[in-house]
Amino acid sequence: MQFDLAGRFVLSADAKAAEAAIRAFFEEANATILKRKGAEPGTDEARVHDVRVEGSTIHVKVESKGRLRAHDALLRLRKAMGEKLGKAHRLGVRDVIIDAYEVTFELEKPVKHPVMVPFAKAVRVEDRTATLELANVDAEFLENNYIDRMINLVREKVNLQHYEGKGEYHRTMWSSPSKEPRWDRNPTEAMVERDWLKQGPTKGKWVFRPQIAAIIRAMERIAVEEVLKPAGFQEIMIPHHVPFDVWLKSGHMHGVPNEIYYVSEPRTRDVAEWQEFIDLVKITRKVPTDKLLANLSPPNAGICYAQCGNIYWSFQQRTIADASLPVQVFDRAAVSNRYESGGRHGMERVDEFHRIEPVYIGTREQLLDVREKLVARYKHVFNEILDLEWRMAWVTPFFLAQEGHDKEVVETDKLEVGTIDFEAWMPYRGSREESEWLEFQNLSIVGKKYTDAFNIKAQRADLWSGSSGIGLERWAVAFLAQKGIDPADWPAGFRKFLPELPKETQFL
Amino acid sequence: MQFDLAGRFVLSADAKAAEAAIRAFFEEANATILKRKGAEPGTDEARVHDVRVEGSTIHVKVESKGRLRAHDALLRLRKAMGEKLGKAHRLGVRDVIIDAYEVTFELEKPVKHPVMVPFAKAVRVEDRTATLELANVDAEFLENNYIDRMINLVREKVNLQHYEGKGEYHRTMWSSPSKEPRWDRNPTEAMVERDWLKQGPTKGKWVFRPQIAAIIRAMERIAVEEVLKPAGFQEIMIPHHVPFDVWLKSGHMHGVPNEIYYVSEPRTRDVAEWQEFIDLVKITRKVPTDKLLANLSPPNAGICYAQCGNIYWSFQQRTIADASLPVQVFDRAAVSNRYESGGRHGMERVDEFHRIEPVYIGTREQLLDVREKLVARYKHVFNEILDLEWRMAWVTPFFLAQEGHDKEVVETDKLEVGTIDFEAWMPYRGSREESEWLEFQNLSIVGKKYTDAFNIKAQRADLWSGSSGIGLERWAVAFLAQKGIDPADWPAGFRKFLPELPKETQFL
Question: Which residues from B are below 8 Å from A213, CB to CB?
Answer without folding.
Answer: 234-237
